Amino acid sequence: MSHQTYTFTSESVSEGHPDKVCDYIADSILDACLAQDTASHVACEVLCKDNHVVLAGEITTNGTLDYEAIARQAIREIGYTDPAEKFNADGVKVTVLISQQSGEINAGVVKATDDQKEQGAGDQGIMFGYAAAESPELMPLPIVLAHKLTKGLADDRRSGNFDWLRPDAKSQVSVVYEGNTPVRVSSILISTQHANTIGQAEIRDYVEKVLAPRVLGEWFTPDVEVIVNPSGSFVHGGPSADCGVTGRKIIVDSYGGAGRHGGGAFSGKDPSKVDRSGAYYCRYVARRIVQAGLAERAEVQVSYAIGRAKPMSIKVDTFGTGDEAKAEKFVYDNFDFRPANIIKELELLQPLYRKTTNYGHFGKAGLPWEKPVPVAV
Q1: C-alpha torsion 29→365→12→269, nearest 10
Q2: CA–CA gap between residue 375 and residue 53 (Å, rounded)
């Protein structure tokens, strides 16, 4: 095997995965706050296990919210409604441990310590954004295909045509590259929760003949190895079986491991938290670099200090696929990484965050940081 030929794998999880249940509840609470008060500051964490849901964190808002009702509705939308299961929308016990945001943090966010007319970053940290010309979404192909599989499972479950499908599921896709170019899919892995009325052979038949051909299209060929529920039966799943917590699927949420990650989770955080807004803006800028023809692959890093508006640093990497100096000048000349500008430019005070929770925060049409805005070089 040549050093230029390699296989890269990414995974995705469905909206019914225990961690994603928590992310969706957290983003549902965030959207409810922003719908009533765009100045809301939200940092919401969620834990789900058996018949328990714990909501914790700091929320400062002028809105009037019923956190328990929001959590139950989010669980219902995901599909956990079976009263025979420990974890179901009507049967869970919801514990609320939410206080207001620290006054010290709030003061630094409202007025930046380096510019009293500006909004400061809600925390210190580093964020990355990535884009690659290898797919129409300008995303790494393995994570795009993995998301298509898990979303396809959810679509089929909701259609009623495959009523044995249950909400919890995972996928994994391995793609063979030659240089920067994906050339074929070598294997796919599907683990899906199911009713106890169906066997492994029927599930595999569905994946091979219905799901994979439909969602993968030309990438699904007879040479692709297909692995389905490798541990055997998967009847007991979701938070009834495993504990879920917000923020544990940050690689699934971003680039599937192909691009770097600063470590900060997204869900449950309002855009004053640069963990979220900074990562969205870095993606926005990386896409512009690729769209402008300055590189085939681009990664943007930004760093912040809590309470300061101006970033500590901005770095551009084109991985040898473009003129890095020209790309960096393009970024410095055209983009403003101060938190207030990010929020304004990407219109981040809308209650849009439940749209981001599942199947990746990047590469999905309709999100402000994914809009196809032409940029002149």
Answers
A1: -30
A2: 45
